[in-house]
Records
---
Amino acid sequence: MTERAGAPPARDAAPVRLVLLDARPPAERATLLAGALRLRLGPGQETFVPPAADVVAAAHADPDRHLVVARPPGGDPVALGVLHPGGAPAEVVALLGGVGADDVVLFRGFLVDVASQGGGVGSRVVSLLPGVVGDLARVRGRATPFAVLVLTVNDRNAAGRRAYARAGLTDRGAYLGGSAGPQRVMARDLGPP
């Protein structure tokens, strides 16, 4: 499966589906990508995440980066992110309990459109990532599943840390390599590699 559905949160917000673009037909991929490029950051968020066009350009330049978009069923994208197997810095991997870097998938470049922020989209997307990481392992032809999903979130982003914790990620420690200051490493074990 390459599109994962999320249940609506308690706030009665609309559900979202998470789509791994590499697993979609070219025409659908192009349509979803065009919608993702229209996503806009809120004021001051460019300090923590690049605009959608930069996230997409970095993914197109690196075959190890895989774009995912979130959208309501049948709707336009409301969020964009990148799954990057083997992309976690060594300092981050060291906090994950002995797992090898090749068994770790870094979730990066995550942005929720400013019009969709505050409605639980971030938590829902992150809660759906383990299933999409499983799909990614199949797309990449891995013999074994990935072991850990990880992301870093800026120390100053309390709302992001809360959203990721609600989605099942746990704080694994500090990472000082972020371009916008100290980060917290948040991860979820996915099973044995």
---
Amino acid sequence: MPVPNRRTETRHATPGSTCNHFQKYGMTCDDFDRLLSRAAGRCELCETPEGETPRGALVIDHFQGAGLFFVRGLICDRCNSVMSRHDRSAEWGPSSLPWADRARNYHLAAFERPTAEEFERADRYIASRRAYKVKDRPAVPIARPETVVVRLDRSMTVAADKLRRHLTDRQRARLVALLSNPE
């Protein structure tokens, strides 16, 4: 089968772009359609409907390591976190541990159907990894967003100037729309 041309894998992309599934995972549009059909609009691990997931979308889950790369399926963000524990890039915790068996079964039912030898190599790689711990990561200070106080009992000109300085164009447009609504 010929290798698809990068420009031809555009069926699921915005006009003028190449599909994300092709750029990141090497999946043709036909492969991606089969993956979508297999998932049937639900997370393949927890079976939550796509629209009810926190993001409102499913993500392509894959395994990468030991010289292997294969797509496992479509899952929600929460289950993607479970699979990171399966792959030992994070530790199992009390809330994720009950998912260990389901994660293993899902891994073994990978969409791209690795061979038994490839699964064995993947298992050896996973077993060799030291689970990532949050304390291993250096602390990164998080900047708190600036709190802006707009006094409405003072000059409206001063309030408007403050809002212009601190709101983005999109936020200002949304505020104007809300204020213009007669309800």
---
Amino acid sequence: MNAIALSRASTALLLGCSLLAPLAQADTQVVKYGNLVANAVVATPLLAQDSLVVDTFTTERGALSQTTTFTVGDGVEYFSGNAAWLVNTANDFGPRLTGVNIDLFDATNTLLQSDTFVGVLGGFAHSTFGGLLGPGTYTMVASGAGIRDSLLDISLTMAVPEPGTYAMLLAGLAVVGLGLWRRRSGMANDGDRWQMMRFQPVTPA
């Protein structure tokens, strides 16, 4: 592929990818907890690309039981989430939260998702969770035990594959594919013509 063809292909690909940029500004809803046992209701529905952040810091000790209820708006089809909490060792003096578990329930109190522990890095334990999630009302429950001060952060991000976005991306990729096909087709035809000219039998005079 020559430089001109590569330039055209790159331009088309960049055009297709640029069309993936979200058209609406994403919103972030933040819930702050200062107690181990607490609950909150997020009034504004979460739409595609919106995030919910639950931030906890407390000096209380004892059982962690936090319930956060939120609503997902039309168009959302799945979500991704992660959590991080401080797990300083028993001999340290910093926050120490143990046995953390995060569950997501629907309006009928059916368990939909639970977080999966990933590991500990820099004194923070990490977990992730995610999956299909359509419009409706949901409750996220965080449980565990605060041995000393407790610090816990949870974030959820709503996502949706928009048909219009995919159509525009596919259009951009189609331009790239068409350019490559025409380029290769042209090279093949040129090669065939060259072969025909080279091996055409000479007619005796």
